[in-house]
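Hey team,

Filing this mostly as a record. A colleague (T.K.) asked me to run one chain through the structure pipeline before their review meeting, and I want the input and output archived in the tracker in case anyone asks later how it was produced. No errors, nothing strange. Just documentation.

Input sequence:
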Amino acid sequence: REQIEENAKTYFAQASLVLDPARTEIRYNSEWSDPLGARGMIQLAAKYTVARILEREDFTKRFKAGTPISVHELLYPLMQGYDSVALKSDLELGGTDQTFNLLVGRELQKDYGQEPQCILTMPLLEGLDGVEKMSKSKNNYIGITEPANTMFGKLMSISDEMMWRYYELLSFRSLGEIAEFRKNVEGGRNPRDIKVLLAQEIVTRFHNKQAAEDALADFNNRAKGGIPDDIPEVSLNGAPLGIGQLLKQAGLCPSTSEALRMVEQGGVRIDGATISDKALKVDAGTFVLQVGKRKFARVTLA
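Output structure:
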């Protein structure tokens, strides 16, 4: 429960970048789920059938394939639906992957004599890879509390085709403006110019206009092979240090295996020189270490 409360503080801080904190209330569903008890849980379960639960697409596929479905998974839509009952919800928001659970909430509200809530679903946004949905666990995400430079760089890294999807789901520009941008690109305009406008809009929303302008300048500097002004400074011991360990200890790679993979792909530089030797031992000194286009550290190795 302590971990849940700590997570809730993080979520609230993030939501406050969009919602007015003074008009936002946080509720914990333990308020109504804990008092349910065994009797209440059975009474709730009696209001829905297995046949209806199995109408959920992923359950249907797994049932037909003979893949095990745990009982607690079947109960989850009911518990989420009961949240709507407890809150007397008028409107519930969610991704399209939550449509079934939101509809369960409507049905339960009818059973409890309430007016069924309206539901508003949004398409899921693909991550930076352009394939999987954006997720922190898949490391293909853009965090709304990330530094402006990081946010800008990640937005600029999406493909030109995926850019239009981001425009449609994230931008406050009208569909007419976006359509005009498409015509401009089809007419020969560099899609990078249009992507810059998107990146500036998003960074301005979660930071401010000056941060967006500074992020653009930083991005252009990096694109020319320049070194950002705000790179972290790291002090390490153990020279000479293997390149894999160096990258890991400097915080630029999560593991030595990932570090060596980046070396193999030509994505590692020391003071601008590309490193290709995975067995390299780096001597003591101060130098700029770079992984990929966006990760830098000024390292002092003793």
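Quick notes for T.K.: The beta strands are 91-95, 118-122, 233-236, 241-242, 268-270, 273-274, 281-282, 285-291, 295-301. Residues 71-87 form the longest helix (17 residues).
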